[in-house]
């Protein structure tokens, strides 16, 4: 039969327990008894005479815990003694030991049918100076049991507890780690959680160290792992830490080991979760060390969610191996739960990490300034390149020319002297004289006021730029701003010129690169390139 990992804990103060006899309650008087830890919640019910108690539950297993503090009575007996039964049927009782211990199993029934049962405990006290002590019940609940307002025992073997690397078994009792930074996490539903375990003895290092726990991502809280001196008994059921009271709802616990292979290990035997119902349709806010975490609630009870095997992150708060009972209540009243301020951390040089750092204002400002500088540099580079491009576009290769109105690459006719008279040499033999006609443009007319004029061909002839005004016939110098062009000698002494003088001739000055129409057969055309002026 597999061992259940979740049990409901019923403390001796639960109002559903029926006591018969002169029972009394003790609180704190047995805390330092033996090495099995203090009674659950630090309370017990005792009787110095014969008495009984009973409790009805719905489940399949039940264990009765008390304190074994007896003396020998007769050859094989002890006083006080006890006997247990379930539904009137006797179940085996566990023998007492010769020294006093809390958290001792008095009797156990592990093969019950799943359903409602009544467990009864009978205490027999022969010597009124002796006391029979009852502490609490643990039982495995049926699925129909509401877990609202119950204390839930969760064994370290529960699958919902997530162990990181570095964890391993501590004999057959608990889980432990000696790896620095090893983590364990657990999600749970409740209002408080306690981490309970043993402190191992001589087989592991005993140097003091610490670990931390955090709830819902809040500030980690440091707790002490005190370790043992050589030869000391191993204490069990030690509360390593207990969380403050939380808001009802789901929570996340994370525990991180701060020691190493040369220090006391971090171990876990079981967790105790105090459940409470979650108000329907409400959202709860958990505050841990100044950090608030909002957790949504549902209509289902917190305890039933915990019993379903939700996982929880385990973390540590300073308890230093305290044997004080877990602060929980099985009666449903959680108002009496202590807020459990962590015990002072006696280890030196340790600090709790801060929650969240402030926004890095310096880094943000530096980034903004740097971005602005980059943008300004890019704009300046763009303007510089643009300005240089414009200068290159406007640059013109000016070279000395015969006339200020003539620009290369076209070779214009050289300017005439002041008289604008050019002596034309005699025509070569067998060559007919060329009849000169006004220069005609092939493109857009440069000046609309100019009218073509006819020149009389003679031994000495006069030519003038088409930019001259109508007074060109006189031998006056050209008007200011207008350039005269003289025809050099031999200009028309080309073999390509027609030999016949029968056809008329004309001179054409081109002003653009437009289409050139072929000349008529009956005339001779002298084509001149366009004239360009400086821009």
From TrEMBL:
- Residue ranges with Polar residues bias: 337-357, 467-479
Give the highest taxon in the source lineage.
Eukaryota
Show the segment(s) annotated as Disordered: 279-357, 409-434, 467-522
Q: Which residues cross the membrane?
A: 361-385
**Compositionally skewed regions (Basic and acidic residues) per UniProt:** 508-522
Question: What keywords sit in the KW lines?
Answer: Membrane, Transmembrane, Transmembrane helix
Residue ranges with Low complexity bias: 280-317, 324-336
Instruction: Name it.
Output: Transmembrane protein
